[in-house]
């Protein structure tokens, strides 16, 4: 199915600054969804293998039916954490077909990989959060010591030798994926050639990286490889489509779904910040 | 501003066919009209010029007839259409010009006054002026030739000797109302009234205003007109500092308004006629028939409206008077009456008032009174708290009041009720403090809550699944799930889920779900813009139709509706965190810092009398450290009038008491109840505050509570569990948290309830069938209510959004039908029909315990005990699902950013 373009402000220089981070993450999703046509009625979502989250009978084995809720909510909670982290230059979007697959894109703003726009997919093990750490695979193998030159998989495991629930979260994987482009590590590489070049011939490494970035960016507007309505796709800037979307992103204010305009009464507080006494705020004549 | 917009349309046009207006002789030609007018004036002026003051009635009649005609002509005259209108104001018609140059009206009024104004002429003049001002086609009041005679006439009405006879009050108020309406249209008139008057009238320079004030609290149309008129003055004062100062400094407006409320309150019924065992709050239907309450509510509504429009100077004075002249001297003692009936009434009134107020600053005044004012060493809040532990209707009314308080999402309220006790984090083991901020990422807490659903209640559900084979659990789940999914994609599939299983929500949520019968899934907002704001909710990652779901089909009918709970939890948490976004601190265990926050008040020391009379619990707090000094001063100032008032009330109420206790047995104060708080507890022990303690004690006692108490009670705990502040959230919902031994956790309380239910079930062979019948009864009742349109929202509120933001919580809805006796009867009949299938009908055994003939008092008591226990088991299971859903939803909720800029 052909998807409308998805814009991510390719050229905004100030994006690195944290100020707009809040508007960046969620509205990015937002605009995507706004332009998304209704799912064709016959698009039957493909599900993960049946083993997904098949709940081991819990506690006294009677409320196993809640198992799917738990997995689903755990992943939603992870996604919520990602949004809260406001990771600079990283955007993710769970797939329509499976919550265990997230599409993402990372923008590199400076350093060797500057101007790189790398799409990737995160695969979360189906026994999450008790399994191994999630996999992160770049759509186009990036020339990097820690990225497998064939599969495009990033070596995440070295950072998360053991995935510990409550301590490890998916946003950390994403953060790690960003870090590797700024702080290059060549120990035990998945791409020995890149590692050796980096150590031995910085110039050549650099030019290979630049070539790789160029190659990657030249395929930016390709259709996504996966046929998924929530896959990330780019298109050239089209003011007719994007200006309005951008405007909405910047003016966007999240409200409760059932919020009614003009509800003034919310947010009652007369506590002076720093005080724990009720009515400690000086009574302003306005309220 | 709806008051004003309601007032403004009442212009000249709408009143054209009043009988008071004499028919006009001519409307056509301005020149003819002027001639006719001059003709009349000649005749009048001839009479006026008679030196002889003791004129005959012939003169009077002549003057009056001619004046009628003249003023009609003046009122009908249209402003001249001359082109040279540029300089000042609209061009005036020739008649008006004549009136001004000859000073006709002034001479007329002077003549009347000089010859002694009899009520008849006074009334006639009032009517004439009212007609003139109300119907005039051109602005009149900015001409001193009109304004001054008007003020002279009104001055006569204010004259202590002459005064205004009662028969003329209607005319007077109507005239004043007209003046205020035109004043609201032309602010310059206010200025003129204000400045022109002193020369004429001496001290009271805003005469119109002082004349209106006495009518503020009047019943009927005249009171309404006076209030409307005053409100216009108030609105005008907002931009006129001088007027505002005058009102505040030289008028009795604020004291009259506030003390008037006191007077009206004292005439309210001392006892509320109760119509059913589930009644717990005053709804509009309840009070519309009680004239004294209608009167009070009108005045309260007026106060609210005044606060909304008036200048801040007047507002703060009014609020002070309301606090010191109404709340402290009247509400305070009323809430502390000793008879249960009076406590019920005053609590229900206070609840109603709080629900009716829309203005933030007025609400603040009420809340400050409740939280900080001390009556007999107890804050009002503490007094109200103790009432929860009673087992009478008083408990329900009090719970209802607290539900209202919680629904305000007010930081100050939450601080006093709970947060200040949790702030020091002493209730948590030191090692656990960092867990305060954790959410239920992996559903562990949710799982824990669900695991407490007693085995005996699950068996029942498995059995009932067979009945419902056409509607297996997962197909229902799909429906809802698909709805959620499709909403995201703006595809509207309408699949109203059926409520065949007694999900607590499905009985209660009717009103909130808004769409009447569909009750949930299908009615959510489906505009795509809204969805975008739902954050992670847009990402229900698991597809509903995945085969793995289907493997569980059919076996879990009992937990149908869990998605409804999730959906509701999401909405409620979102609304709550939206409402709390401007709080001063996140209350996350670090901010405010546990170390700097003052130690919370220690639990009250034990007091033997307290256990006997729980209604009279009082906290022995030394010193009122919470009361700011200026308030203490205020209290001292107010104490005099307070004492008088109290004495009066005391006399009246004791007589009433006597009567009531004679008539009804339930006027007694005694009640079996669990202690409101652990007694004999060393003060150094961590203490989570009286509110939590009393709620938990009540909750632990669920089996003994009536169905309605349990609905309210669980509703309140669920309401608390919606709050996003980590301190509160972790206290209620984090089941992994380890608390200090002296602190009881919600999960402990629930565990104990579970054990009790299981023990009860084990001792009653027919528990499964009773449980099923209780469920069926509740479903039938819920459906019936559900089908009814949710039209009866308290209409006192002016803004819909406010209703929403202070929605009645869950329990309200099931209880609502009491207000309509017929509906209640239908509900009962339907339920009986539904339930009376087996020989051993639960309801013939339980509901009509007396009708069995042989049943003794003991049997009835036992039947009641069984009934309560069975119903509590149903509510308990639903409550656990609700809590589990809340725990899960908290993990996926995004906080709202603070509200930096002013809202639209």
Automatic annotation (TrEMBL), chain A:
InterPro entries: Ub_conjugating_enzyme, UBC, UBQ-conjugating_enzyme/RWD
Domain UBC core, chain residue ranges per copy: 70-218
Places the protein is found: Cell membrane; Cytoplasm
Pfam families: UQ_con
GO cellular component: cytoplasm; plasma membrane
Biased composition (Polar residues): 274-287
Chief place of localization: membrane
GO biological process: apoptotic process; protein transport
Keyword Cell division: no
Bias type Basic and acidic residues, positions: 12-23
UniProt-listed PROSITE patterns: UBC_2
Membrane topology designation: Peripheral membrane protein
Keyword match Transport: yes
Swiss-Prot/TrEMBL keywords: Apoptosis, Cell membrane, Cytoplasm, Membrane, Protein transport, Transport
Top-level taxon of the source organism: Eukaryota
Membrane-spanning parts: none
Family annotation (PANTHER family): UBIQUITIN-CONJUGATING ENZYME E2 (PTHR24067)
Protein's recorded name: AKT interacting protein
Automatic annotation (TrEMBL), chain B:
Ranges of biased composition (kind: Gly residues): 513-523
Quaternary structure, from the entry: Component of the FTS/Hook/FHIP complex (FHF complex), composed of AKTIP/FTS, FHIP1B, and one or more members of the Hook family of proteins HOOK1, HOOK2, and HOOK3. The FHF complex associates with the homotypic vesicular sorting complex (the HOPS complex).
Keyword Iron: no
Ranges of compositional bias, category Pro residues: 595-606
Lineage: superkingdom: Eukaryota
Segments of skewed composition (Polar residues): 528-537, 621-630
Role played: Component of the FTS/Hook/FHIP complex (FHF complex). The FHF complex may function to promote vesicle trafficking and/or fusion via the homotypic vesicular protein sorting complex (the HOPS complex). FHF complex promotes the distribution of AP-4 complex to the perinuclear area of the cell.
Cellular component terms per the entry's GO annotation: FHF complex
Low complexity compositional bias, start-end: 14-25
Keyword Transport: yes
InterPro entries: FHIP, FHIP_C, FHIP_KELAA_motif
Chain intervals for the UniProt region annotation (Disordered): 1-25, 508-552, 589-661
GO terms for biological process, alphabetical: early endosome to late endosome transport; endosome organization; endosome to lysosome transport; lysosome organization; protein transport
A Pfam family this chain is assigned to: KELAA
Name of the protein this chain belongs to: FHF complex subunit HOOK-interacting protein 1B
Similarity comment text for this entry: Belongs to the FHIP family.
Domain FHF complex subunit HOOK-interacting protein C-terminal: start-end pairs: 688-780
Keyword annotations from UniProtKB, A to Z: Protein transport, Transport
